[in-house]
Amino acid sequence: GRRLPLLLLSMGPPPGHHALLTSGDETLHLYGYNKIRARTYLFYLLSVLSLGIFRLLCHWKVDWLLHFRARRSSLEDADYILVIDEHQAESVREVRTLRNERGMAMPRDDGSMETVKEMRSFSFRKCIYVWIAERQAFTLPSDLACKTALGLLHDIADDNECGLNSEEVARRKATFGSNLIDVKLRPIWLLLFREAISPFYMFQVFSVSVWFTDGYIYYAGVIVLISVTSIIIDVCQIRSQEKKLRAMVHSTEMVNVIRNGGEVLAISSDELVPGDVLVIPRHGCVLPCDAVLLNGTVIVSEAMLTGESVPVTKVAVSVHDSERSIPFDLETHAKHVLFCGTNVLQTRYYAGHHVKAVVLRTAFSTLKGQLVRSIMYPKPIDFRFTRDLFKFVGFLACLACVGFIFTIVIMSIRGAAVHTIIIRALDIITIVVPPALPAAMSVGIIAANMRLRKKNIFCISPSVINTCGATNVVCFDKTGTLTEDGLDFHRARALTKRSSGKVPLFTPEASSLEGETHGDLIKAIACCHSLTRIDGVLTGDPLDLILFEQTRWSLTEGSDGMAEDENYDSIQPMLLRPPNMHPTYGGCTVLRQFPFSSSLQRMSVIVQAPHEADSAHDMTLYVKGSPEMIRSLCHPETIPMDFDDVIAGYARHGFRIIAVARADVELTYAKAHKVPREEVEHDLELLGVIVLENRIKPQTTGVIQQLSKADIRSIMVTGDNLLTATSVARESGILSPNKKVYALEHTHEKDEHGRTELVLRLEFDPADGGGGGQPNGNANGSIGGNMGIRLLGSKNGKDVERASSPVGGAITARYQMVITGPTFAVLTHEYPELLDLLVCSCAVFARMAPDQKQALIHHLQAIDYTVVMCGDGANDCAALKAAHAGISLSEAEASIAAPFTSRTADISCVPSVIAEGRAALVTSFGVFQYMAGYSMTQFMTVLFLYTMPTNLVDFQFLYIDFFLITLVALCFGNTHPCRKLSVQAPPTRLLSLPTIISVFGQLGIIFIVQSVTFAWTMNQSAWNTGFKQDGDNDETPSFEGTALFIVTGFQYMTLAIAYSKGAPFRKGLLSNKPLCGCLLLTFLVHSVITLWPMDWLNDALSLKHIPFGEPRLILLGFAAVSAVVGLIFEKIIVARVYEHVRRSRRAARARRDPSLAATSFERLLLQSGDSPSWVHTAAANPPLSPTTTGAAALTMTDLDEVIVEPFSVQEGIANPQMVVEEKA
């Protein structure tokens, strides 16, 4: 559930203390607090007395800050607001009261403005939230300003004397601020300070303070140098990113606005306010705000926001009389909105008429501003490895406390000075929790990022690389990602002329459009598109370009020199002329265009042939779109009997099908411009279908196979139709040829519980060679064959079948499913209990809207999948941002929203990113185990010596910490990943049993060897003359210290070799030449110290003279035994024997009891059965109530978090009887 601030757990809150604020995709929890002066004074007093430590703790824990300075209050009276976002990040914002005697504009619920002289507000992440008294809530003003009634927008469009006056502009600017998306460059000193006060660097400050006090100057200096260098590098990276982002988003230019009753003024774009009437220049500009188009037509490129390089046509908002009171909605009316940051390529207008747009949103409240905010304030990475890392550091801290107490006790008993006791006790903490740990942990990420850059894969968030190593599912967009961007014309199928009482037939396939056979079809294709000429070049959707080129018609747009016809109202007509070889068919003028809508799955135009113009104004409507949508709009008598068979046949082979239709309409010029599309898009006459080929990219199949062999699941998430998507999935390998494939659909009927009825259809059966057991298509257009399966019957049946699970391998479902966006929406709203099982087994999600793609990613994450999303940037931005890691194949500026961008426009980058992620993750594991082993080894050594009492001397510490440890750790990340992705997944849990056994097993071996070494040295009376402390010097050299120094030096090298793991995720140790070089150098140097010590070296390291020969060979033997036993334990016992036994037992336990599976999706897969019979189980039961528990029930908290409840095997959930319905 939602985590509440500490101070909310005491007394009950006052009324109005908490509110939920939703704006766009952002959900915030607001809590009000009043400042208490006495507590504030106490807060400052504690901060001073603690030398700033208390203030620093309150900086890290913001709810503590409020606890000591304020008390809970209503939001209406609050001085401070505690803001908790959907990621549980907390921030305290001060409420400010602004007063302006000239007044400020306060938006109402209906989008109108009222004038107020006082306004309470707070700022959060570049946006200002104001208190709206009538709503009793804080609100983003632009959210209300956007709700202007459509009728008011229409009136502004018709008003030649529109525009705000100067006083109203001033009032609105006081509320909304300047129209600037300004990424301010924070001062260098501030960046340095914020980096330096992080817990990591604060611990380093503590460590070096102890070391400097103790005289351990050299290594302390090295740590200071490394820390300062790291801070400077981090600050430089932050400043560089700020500069890049600022350069990308900051722009101010002169724009024309209509103000003061129709006067056109040239002003700076930062002076724009919501409600301003903006004049769109004819030859283009970059939109400085979000605005709704009032008249004319505008062609824009939205590549900056969506990655879509195809120009989009925006049309003026049109209002029917019955719609005047309807508030404007950004999602519903997006086709009329010019978004900030989009590039206006061209406007269509008439001489003497401006193309006008009303400003809706400015600055950071615009769509571009929201994108910039998402980049500036990214979601925190919630990765199990990171959580475990902090837990283990916490364990080390507890161990350090034990050592701290032990040191105090033993030194107090020996009568050591208080100063010495404090220093030695604090020194133990710096040994057990190594300050260099975080820096060492990043070496794998840095090395992986450098290797990715060499492959033209760029990462703007390197911390995500480790997350990629845990990837177990990859979601792919289809068009432009799995398949080529372009489409090729394949075939045309027109219809024969319909005789009275006869159903038309399809003509034979034609590889080109021929004038005699395809006359009406050619004319429809030549007219029905969104193409335009920009600087003489025909520009638009690639599909439209391909089809238009096939017709060989020409396109001309009116110019200022042409005679204008006032009948054409506010848009410039588009003239289309046939080629000379088609003299029979005259030219056409496009009067109105209804742009393509993904929800409507079609576009249409109203045209008129100039030579046919008469008083009746006969016009023609041409429509093209998806076959299923066009069929539903056509008169049944115009549909051939084999329509479904033909469509299914082409779609099954991966072709894209466009259906074309027409209708005669009788409209005036004025009505043609204003008529709603629903009034004309009905009772159409089907003209035929166009078949286009969308070829799979050459790399696609190989990459999908590579992921499949590595047990990484591939999912297709596309906006294309289900038939085409299924075919591409089959061809690319996303759909397995060895598994049954079910299509989950919905009908328009309701069941006994009032829910939409679900239907399962067997689309593919490998036992029958596909087609659901039937070779022929379905006359009713069902997917793949004559046999539909509707799950009927009782709940009694066999026990749930277990999913297939090879020993030690991934658990997989025995079947796959495909689904469309509309059915996914039905499940989301009516069958939420089915979503978990669906996303576990479904491989193709077709007709998915951008928000549905994002929702799918969230559902996968909620059941413990680590998700990578790969798309070309078009309509994929939301999903790219939602995934654990997004890979954009688009070089458009919007790709900055994804952590990874590949300059190679195919999915070959995906295995590279996953392989580097796995290598970096394994490196991080190895470095952590190495650093933890090093700290614990040194901890043991120091505790042994404290009993004498003595310690290692400074140069011995420096030799170990810098020469033996730091240099080796820095080389860990240079091991490249293996060329092939392994079936075995890398570990993601740092606190897993194998890791714990490995670390503590090595420490046990090291402890035994150190104990034997210490005891053996103490008993060598022949040359060990005993320990005599040199006065108060607690670092007096000793034979025991020298012996432990020699043996532990080799133990550190053993740890490096043991934890530098190779296959199956990285290449072998010998491939890492820098690491091998460091290990060889340290081995040679330490061997010289052990066997042939030189006097100057002995003096520098303060080593006692142990006799040559047998004593030193015995010490070398202790080190050799430690190395051999340690490597055998790690490489054989832990890596092979124990891991094999553990995986086998885990798989067996999971098969016996699914609740014992490691992850939520594994538990779900183990209970998914031989077929998706759980669909029937849910349909046969009443809808879930909030208190109902059951199979993977989902409950939504007020923070929109998805809580996956335990999946319980209920009696009666079994394979129900499946009644097979024969389709006519």
Descriptive overview:
- It is a multi-pass membrane protein.
- It catalyses: ATP + H2O = ADP + phosphate + H(+).
- InterPro entries: ATPase_P-typ_cation-transptr_C, ATPase_P-typ_cation-transptr_N, ATPase_P-typ_cyto_dom_N, ATPase_P-typ_P_site, ATPase_P-typ_TM_dom_sf, ATPase_P-typ_transduc_dom_A_sf, ATPase_P-type_domA, HAD-like_sf.
- The structure is a single chain.
- This protein is α+β, with helices and mostly antiparallel strands and 1224 residues long.
- A ten-stranded mixed sheet has the order 20-40-39-38-21-32-37-36-33-34, with helices on both faces. An eight-stranded antiparallel sheet has the order 22-31-30-29-28-27-26-25, sandwiched between helices. Strands 11-10-12-19-14-17 form a six-stranded antiparallel sheet.
- Strand 23 and strand 24 form a beta hairpin.
- The protein is globular, with a radius of gyration of 36 Å.
- The two termini are 51 Å apart.
- The C terminus is likely disordered.
Quick gist of this model?
Residues 25-131 form the P5B-type ATPase N-terminal domain. The protein is α+β, with helices and mostly antiparallel strands and 1224 residues long. The strands form nine sheets. Strands 20-40-39-38-21-32-37-36-33-34 form a ten-stranded mixed β-sheet, sandwiched between helices.
